[in-house]
Amino acid sequence: MTETQHTQSVRRTQGARRNGWGRRIPWMRWIGFVAGRYVSRGRRNSPSPVLSVLGIATGVLALIVIISVMNGFQLGFIESILEISSGHIRLEGLPPEELDVISEKIRAVPRVVSVLPFRELNVLLRGRHANPRGAFVRAVPANALELDPGLAGRLEIVAGSFDLESPGNIVIGAELARHIFVQTGDNVSLLSITGGIRGEDEGGTNNLTVTGIFRSGFYEYDLGWVFVNLEIADALSGESIPEHLQSPVLGIKLNNRWHDRRGMQELEAVLLNSGINLEDGAVTLASWRDYNRAFFTALRTEKLMMFILVGLIFIVVGLNIYQAQRRIVLERREEIGLLRALGASDTAVRLVFVWDGFIIGFTGAGFGLALGLLIALNISPVFTFLETVINFLIDRINDILAYLGMYSGAQEFALFSPAIFYIKEIPSRVIPHEAALIFMFGFLSALLAAWFASGKVSGIRPAEVLRYE
To answer: Cys-Cys crosslink for 223: which of 90, 105, 175, 255, Cβ 3.0 to 4.6 Å?
Structure first.
């Protein structure tokens, strides 16, 4: 082909592109066709595209499973804190005589799910055969589980019942009960640190009967928390507590904790209509973001670092795809020259290799996303299967060694043994937008690698390449 013929061919191709969208479709079709052939037929002296697809899929799979398990642990902690301890919004400092009236007005707010009055005290708790142990008392109404369904959903009563009808009853955490050697029906001595020690001659509030033992799934609560009736809070706290702290705190929960700012605005309006001004500081509203800021920030930082560390997989895979694409550009110089001679522009030829990266990235990320979601949503059966396989191999090795008269000492294997970890099963939570973000990471790593690697196409001149053919 002469230089004049080549120039005419290029002009005809460029003119066809300018003749409307309908003319562009065949132009895109041949790009997809050539890219598909490159991927399906492999590359000369280069790693198979299958390896690149597997690399992307492995990165997406690993990141989805790891982040899902991390979400399971973190959200379990967060929900335990919000449902058992702090609630979504706290209202403190209300006058005791207006507490019931304002509570009913707050319950009428559409966004509010529950309102629970409570008080908090620090005490020493002593069983029959143990030294006193520090504990955190949450004084609540006898019908606390009815007032707060979220609290009822997080507390698993493993012995007895959540019975606080009598002021002399107490419900304690399972780990705390184990440490002080008590069961349901036993008496415990409650020594108030806040208000001083109260003796039996001062109302009998220092001896309480264990009516229930609970587990929350959060070790700190199971080891250090107890629930008592709100009526005995004054007797336990004594006269040394400031007056503004003697009024119960209202723990308010919303139908969506992320709407806490709007909820606080609505509660402020309710308080203003009730004649309570928040500007003097006597009555305060606080969101869960405020009083748990340090803990939640630490969890967020931990998750971000995990994203970055595991996301390095995509950088490694992207670099491999980049090197492979650069190699393929050099290997296919003759074909590129032929395409250019037939009228293809630099951009069109470059898009062939970009489309190659698109196929690799989309296939690998899609396969990794599907398999990752399958594992993340069935994480406990997967771990059980792995433990079964490993224990089967351990048993066979023990049998062989026993036949040879040797002792291996290998015991049953457990990835997350309840004897070591404070969990019964592996938690896993898949957050849709995070899964979509991980998919885009894997897809874009291949696409960008192919785009930068195909930049060498513009330096290939058809005349120079075809001169020696």
So the answer is: 175
